[in-house]
Amino acid sequence: MILVCGIHGSGKDQYSNNLKLKKDMNTYTASQLINQTLPLRQYKTKKIDQIDSRQHILLETMKEIVLHEENFILNAHLCLINEKGEVERISTDVFKNMPITEIHLVECSAKEIEQRMYRRDEISWDIRFIQSFLEEEKKYAIELSQLLNVTLSVINTSSDNKKNIILPIAPQYIEKILSGEKKYEYRKRLCKNNISRMYLYATAPVKGIVGEAEVIGKLEKNPKDLWNLTFQDSGIKVELFYKYFENYSRACAYKLGTVTRYANIIPLHNIGIDYIIQSFKYISDI
């Protein structure tokens, strides 16, 4: 079970939905499972009553899921706002009784969460309260990952945290990247920012993000030197390389590391993009 956590407004719902496509797993939301038995009385304020009782209901409900599914995603919180308006941790015993194999913590800047909460729910939270909420959720996520001996991944959905790019690539070359045959993606120009991940957008007829690749370097040389350095892992023929860089004095490439193939295609509209990407697009974690 992958536990996706994060405070209100962090973007964990969208991340969970995308993770469902990447992993081909069912996604369950803790609040929805609990509300089937014990409806929440103060949803609009985000204050939660009967925190312990509600978590007991969650565990009982999950027993039925575990009987039929070995791998699934649970979208939940590690900390909640109690009836006094204070941030309260959910008991460690609750998480000990879950079959957690990974924890994914979804974060966002306090300022952006403030804006999202007002825009979505018309809730006005003090920026200092949001920051303390973020810090407590992260601190608890680290502690739980160590206690349960599971990996912790931190995903940042802040709009100003654009450390990744979406790159349109023809499907036949994406297949070579995903198979490990192609470890360099050639371009006539590179993005200026330092990036850590490339989302592989397969162009027509696929039209969707089919995987991702770690970016471990950016190269820029004259075409001959670049080919001599990269040809063994180029995934293309020399004729195609020189035709692509014809009349160019400089040739560029992204050096790729670990690659991941998604179980399902993620359409661009799933991540709020409603236009065709021509060159590349900076983006936060998805």
Could you give a short account of the major beta sheet? Answer: 6 strands, mixed
Strand elements, count: 14
Average pLDDT works out at 94
Q: Beta-sheet strand percentage?
A: 25-35%
CATH top level assignment of the largest domain: Alpha Beta
Shape: elongated
As laid out across the biggest beta sheet, the strand order is: 10-13-12-11-9-14
CATH topology value of the largest domain = Rossmann fold
Amino- and carboxy-terminal Cα gap: 19 Å
Tell me the series of helices and strands, N- to C-terminal: EHEHEHEEEHEHHEEHEEEHHEE
Number of helical elements: 9
CATH architecture of the largest domain: 3-Layer(aba) Sandwich
Low-confidence stretches: none
Describe the structure in your own words.
35% of the residues lie in helices and 29% in strands. Helix 5 crosses helix 6 (127-148). With 286 residues, it is of the alpha/beta class. The protein has helices at residues 12-23, 30-35, 51-68, 92-96, 110-121, 127-148, 171-179, 223-230, 238-244; strands at residues 2-5, 26-29, 47-48, 72-75, 79-82, 87-89, 102-107, 151-156, 164-169, 184-187, 197-202, 208-221, 251-266, 281-283. The strands form three sheets. A six-stranded mixed β-sheet has the order 10-13-12-11-9-14. It has a five-stranded parallel β-sheet with strand order 2-4-1-7-8, sandwiched between helices. It folds into two domains: 2-156, Rossmann fold; 164-283, Roll (Archaeosine Trna-guanine Transglycosylase, Chain: A, domain 4). The model has no long low-confidence stretch (mean pLDDT 94). The two termini are 19 Å apart. A hairpin with a 4-residue loop joins strand 5 and strand 6 (87-89). InterPro entries: P-loop_NTPase, PUA-like_sf.
